[in-house]
TrEMBL record:
Residues 11-526 form the RecF/RecN/SMC N-terminal domain. Gene3D superfamilies: P-loop containing nucleotide triphosphate hydrolases (3.40.50.300). InterPro entries: DNA_recomb/repair_RecN, P-loop_NTPase, RecF/RecN/SMC_N. Keywords: ATP-binding, Coiled coil, DNA damage, DNA repair, Nucleotide-binding. It holds the Pfam family SMC_N. May be involved in recombinational repair of damaged DNA. This is DNA repair protein RecN.
């Protein structure tokens, strides 16, 4: 990992090899910036205050070794990240002095969330905040489920699958019960509308036809005068020949004169007059029929106006015209055929809901049994670890309790004789309790544990969970705070044991812990030109003795300090060899 412009670190490169790596340094040297860099590479929150004073940006770059066909490799493929020749992935995070952040993975610009997804599969950072998270019931349940492994995972998967179907049926039943009332109202409205339309019995285009008819009946005198005048103009007045001949007679006379001409050009015009005569004759006949049917009929006019009023009542309610009203009626009739408000459908859903509730209760009970079995094992194993961490008289109890449903709980489920809240993770509440000494009452760890004890409980749990944790890299940021003496040596011993199956990086101020590391990095602070900066270097064997002496009592330059540091290193190396040899002998026996 390479860090530039982050906090007091100007530029530093850290080689984080497999096994146990420890990071130390004086107070204020910038040890926590190493963890901050890992947080940034893990998609953590970027803060402008972390950028080194005078720098335009902070840069953190890390190389991740990603197992092929792993969940992390899938994240990289989906992000179109390009791996290096050795299959590793380079992640890059920059934070500007203005607070803006950018992320890159495998040479590709990616959202910060992609780095978070990748790191979730590869690295776990534990610090004081993580200890505080352990105080939450959900985190304690997650610890138990992780320890239980496949037994709880399978029971939980069965529970969640049935619960999802149960909730779907409950929602469908609720919607259909409410919708049944809505559909009944809708059906009544549709039936009422159809009855109104059926009573009026409108015909397609009837409203338009009635408008024309009403106009004719209301204006009969003016219409007769106009039609009669046009008729007389065409055929002439039969009662008064003095008025002259009509247009038809004039056309006939013109045809006669043209047809008798000896000039071919004039004779050629006659057929066109013949066509005009036919057209005029047709119009004349229609005018004659129109006049015969045009009579003043006050009674019919009254009927037409009454019928228009009936049709307007429909067009005000259902559509803008009668054709629209008829279309609404056809659609309403079709809707009525599809409205099902039968009790049979609701009863079938209610029966299925009850069947699924019984099945879900069985899965919930099975899940609880698996958790209770795992809780006993977890309690005994963590208690055994605490004995080695100078808490020999203390004990851990992992309690699995039913989560009772409240009166308004929408996920209430009867399991046996009790109504419980069926959440996404089951019906159980898990609480980790600490018994400070023999005979003491077991209390929730946030009430019973001091800061140092909480650190040791956290570490004991991590050691116990190591076999079940798929994350290959674990980072501990001063989880040994508040611890010293023999307990500190035991913490170092257990971190070394954890490093046999994981890559372990520890930021610590305790020489007893640092002595167990496979390699030792120190964050060194210097001041030049009024500006403080820090760097990171890997210590040689001799340099390591000096650093441990400083950590023990600030006596790096004295023979006594060096002797104490060398003695501590020898103790740690002996303990690690014994642990490895013990592991090998157990394998041979098995």
């Amino acid at each position: 990992m390479r860090i530039q412009g982050l906090g007091v670190i100007d530029e530093a490169t850290l080689q984080l090899d497999p096994g146990f790596t420890v990071v130390t340094g004086e107070t204020g040297a910038g040890k926590t910036m190493v963890v901050t860099g890992l947080h940034l590479l893990s998609g953590g929150r970027a803060e402008a205050s972390r950028v080194r004073s005078g720098a335009s940006r902070a840069v953190v770059e890390g190389r991740f070794h990603v197992p092929p066909d792993s969940a992390a490799a899938k994240v990289a493929v989906e992000a179109a990240a390009e791996p290096d020749e050795d299959g590793s992935l380079i992640a890059l995070r920059t934070v500007g002095s203005d607070g803006r952040s950018r992320a890159h993975l495998g040479g590709r610009s990616v959202p910060v969330g992609v780095l978070a997804e990748l790191a979730e599969q590869l690295i776990a950072v534990h610090g004081q905040n993580d200890q505080l998270r352990l105080l939450h019931p959900a985190e304690q349940r997650a610890v138990l489920d992780t320890f239980a492994g496949d037994a709880v995972a399978k029971a939980l998967a069965d529970y969640r699958s049935t619960r999802a179907e149960w909730l779907d049926v409950i929602e469908e039943l609720r919607e259909k019960t409410e919708r049944a009332r809505e559909l009944a109202k809708q059906a009544d409205m549709l039936q009422h509308g159809l009855k109104e339309i059926e009573a009026v019995d409108p015909k397609p285009g009837e409203d338009v036809a009635l408008v024309d008819e009403a106009r004719r009946l209301a204006d009969v005198d003016q219409l007769r005068e106009a039609a009669a005048g046009a008729h007389y103009s065409l055929s002439g007045s039969p009662d008064d020949p003095a008025d002259g001949a009509g247009a038809l007679s004039a056309v006939d006379e013109a045809r006669r004169r043209l047809s008798g001409s000896e000039d071919p050009k004039l004779r050629d015009l006659e057929p066109r007059l013949a066509e005009a005569a036919v057209l005029l004759s047709d119009v004349n006949n229609e005018l004659s029929g129109y006049l015969e049917g045009l009579e003043a009929d006050p009674a019919r006019l009254e009927q037409v106006l009454a019928r228009q009023a009936e049709l307007k009542m429909l067009t005000r309610k259902y559509a803008t015209d009668i054709d629209g009203v008829l279309a609404w009626a056809a659609d309403a009739a079709q809707q009525l055929t599809g409205l099902d408000t039968s009790e049979e459908a609701l009863n079938a859903l209610a029966h299925r809901r009850d069947e699924l509730a019984a099945e879900l209760a069985r899965h919930a009970s099975a899940l609880t049994e698996e958790r209770e079995r795992a809780a006993q094992e977890l309690s005994s194993e963590v208690t055994a670890e605490l004995a080695g961490l100078a808490m020999g008289s203390a004990g851990i109890e992992v309690a699995v309790r039913p989560r009772l449903a409240s009166a308004d709980d929408s996920n209430a489920l009867r399991v046996g004789d009790v109504v419980l809240s069926a959440g996404a993770d089951g019906v159980d509440e898990v609480e980790i309790r600490l018994r400070a000494h023999d005979g003491a009452q077991a209390l929730p760890i946030h009430k019973a544990a001091s800061g140092g004890e909480l650190s040791r409980v956290m570490l004991a749990i991590e050691v116990v969970l190591a076999h079940a944790d798929p994350v290959p890299t674990m980072v501990f940021d001063e989880v040994d705070a508040g611890v010293g003496g023999r307990a500190a040596i035991e913490i170092g011993r257990r971190l070394a044991r954890l490093a046999r199956s994981h890559q372990v990086v520890v930021v610590t101020h305790l020489a007893q812990v640092a002595a167990f590391a496979d390699r030792h990095l120190v964050v060194d602070k210097s001041a030049k030109g009024g500006l403080t900066k820090s760097g990171v270097k890997t210590l040689s064997a001799d340099e390591r003795v000096v650093e441990l002496a400083r950590m023990l009592a600030g006596m790096e330059s004295t023979e006594t300090g060096r002797a104490h540091a060398e003695e501590l290193l020898g103790l740690a190396e002996t303990a690690k060899r014994e642990a490895i040899n013990g592991k090998k002998s157990r394998r041979k026996k098995s």
